[in-house]
Amino acid sequence: MIRLNLYVLLVVLGSFFNLFCDCCSYKNKTEIVSVVPKSTIIEDVWIRPSLGPNAAGFATINVDKSKKLIGVEVVGNPISKSIELHTHIKDGDIMRMRAVENFNIKSGVLFSLAPGGDHIMFIDILKDIQIGDAPVSLRFKFDDGQVVDANAVIRSGQ
Ligand SMILES: [Cu+2]
To answer: Which domains are seen in the chain, by residue range?
Structure first.
């Protein structure tokens, strides 16, 4: 009986975190061809707070030449225990998040980190993040050595 109750509790907890996971809905990605900038431009950077232990971050990246995004870190005080790059893969009818080593970004194509697609995952948030909090400065690191800082606003959204 105790074992059964534990099982029910685990199922309930599991669905709770799935429900409140920030990046479970899937959207088709569209490639937007852009003008190639002289230097990499990172815009529309935002972090969406979550009721769960993790929060997702998003941005639009326009690279000066094709390269890989290999990591994101917080400039200053960390907001989470770690940061991963996540993508979504289709597992049957369910979209699941997977950590990836990097994102391949083509020049001339706007790369979107967006809800339901590729995103930054802040694992084990250290402090309560609320909508409207002061922006968090993020550092985007690329495989060619390029480093770009951008401020992420804390907001809700899809
Ligand atoms: Cu994720």
So the answer is: 32-154 (2.60.40.1890)
Residue 64: pLDDT above 70?
Answer: yes
Residue 38 CA, ligand 1 centroid: distance in Å: 31
- Taking residue 87's Cβ as centre, other Cβ atoms within 10 Å add up to 16
Using the predicted structure, report yes or no on whether residue 9 has a pLDDT greater than 70: no
Q: How far is the CA of 125 from the centre of ligand 1 (A)?
A: 13
pLDDT at 128: 86
Distance 113 CA to ligand 1 centre (A): 11
What average pLDDT does this structure show over 134-138? 97
**The pTM of the whole model exceeds 0.90:** no
Neighbours of ion ligand 1 (CB under 5 A): 23, 86, 97, 121
Phi, psi at 44, each rounded to 5°: 50, 50
Distance 41 CA to ligand 1 centre (A): 23
